[in-house]
Amino acid sequence: MFADRLTSEQRQAVFDLAVLLAHADHDVSDEEQQYLKNFSDAFGIEYDLDKSEINIDDTLTAFSSKQSKMILLQELVKLSYKDGHFGQEEQENVFMIAQKVGLNDPELLIRIEKWVREGFNWVYEGEQMLEVN
């Protein structure tokens, strides 16, 4: 997990922004909840799904390096895929965050989305192979 490379402040910010993103379509799926629970457990973050008081601009100040910004976007796209598709509202929110952190390069966003999608496909194919007797 690339989030290992983030500071604890950045991990908390990823979690907070992921919660906001999960609420974007007004339906936090079981898969999204499990992702958030796993993330909070992995990094000792309080599992709290009410982030309505979060100021996005203030939260984004935790990300100063290009690497940390890319990891943030990768984690948000990963969450977005948890319910099976990268929906329009989720895409718009990820793109808005990318612009706010200065990574509004469409080619880079496409590469990050492809990276996440291929990772999901890789895991799925592995699970399918293991189920074959």
TrEMBL record:
It comes from the Bacteria. This is TerB family tellurite resistance protein.
